[in-house]
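1st attempt posting a full record on here, be nice pls
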Amino acid sequence: MAESLKVHVDDVEARQRMLGDPCGMGNSEYWDEWFRVVSRGKRFEWYCDSDAVAAVLSAAMCVGDGDDGGGGCRALSSLCLLHLGSGNSGLPVDLAAPPYGVLRSSVVDISVVAVEEVKEGQIPPEWIVEDATTSLLVAAGVVVPRISLHVADVLDPPLEFAGDSLFDAVVDKGLFDALMDDEDGKHPSSSLSTPSVEKTRTLFGESARVLADGGCYVCISLGERHIVKLIVDAAFADDGGGGASPWGNTLRIYEVPPLPSDSSGMRPFAFVVTKERVSDDGGGLAVEFYREDDLRRPSTTVEPDVDEVVDILDESRCRFKERTKTSGSAAAFGGNDNDDDSPRMSLARIHVKPWDDGTDLTSLAVRIRGEGSRYCCGGEFNGDLTWTETETVPMGYGLSKLVLSCVVEDGRLEELCNLIREAEENFVQSVDIDWEATVPVMGVPNVLKYAGKAPTGQ
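the predicted structure (as tokens):
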């Protein structure tokens, strides 16, 4: 039994490696296999949970100035939603259930496997209809949500089930990132590829067609530089016929809390455009940025300049990482004081993510640990760094990362990560500290113990 299980696990990992990075993949065969191998029947959520999406939707559909939600605010229950590239996410069902009560939704994905998983495992049969605009069903005094499911390619418009000006909001949670080739963003000097630009025009164009006036396209993304440029350009482009942009004067960007289970430290953002014509006397074009703790009032407003927008997102990421570090560090070190003047040491865990599956992780680990390399990370720390364990951990999509453990002086942990990042910039996209797994160790015996070098009897 154990041997057969190992064969199965090895087979799954091999299939994941064959799938590779999903960025830029837009064919149904790929995504059918992706859902069979990666999610394996379990709902897979990109970036954030349903509560976070509901909060952004509520803010995006609220144009009133009152704190009481008055003015032009609309209740989620009154909206008709289109979920683009939803996969087997539980978002449509979560939003249909209390407390949100969205009564009309359409779900579309290119993968028949994903759509069937949603149909068979998530939605009550009485909720499913051919057309989400079907008259609402009232059963025992309760209005029953209506959800329609569709297998279609959003890049091959028009979506036959979606009429013009039918929906109040289009929700895209991770689809935009998945469709765009990450070759555009691997290096800042890279120019945007023509396929990515064309896919962006198609996605924005079809969203504008199916949205009612005042409706919103909500795109939840990690906001990498190439994604920012594609969205900024599309938000303020003309309507394709030489007319004004269908998206008005403003692009709004909201901070979004990541999934509680996500230890990567990567913050997602919601990019929101509203279908409205630019008024003749309207002001200049603007990008408004909203912090997580106040989704109703912009904290910053800038011109639609990609560099300025990227700088704002980078500042947000830094604040988020600092907050995560502070809370994790406080939990790890609370109540622990040194009894002497020796440096406070930590057993730390560091996650090193490569750019792609072509990186030799074994060689990367050797270089980082300073074993016979042309540079030596450990040498920079003059004995205040002891490496312990090194693991290769699958991330999905055929990609893996290095997870390295070490004992290091507290104040130099970020210095170590920066050193790794700078030395391996051609191979490494991020170096993050797992604060929840970082614990204090005091004194030489403990350092040796955690390093696995304690003398007998220690």
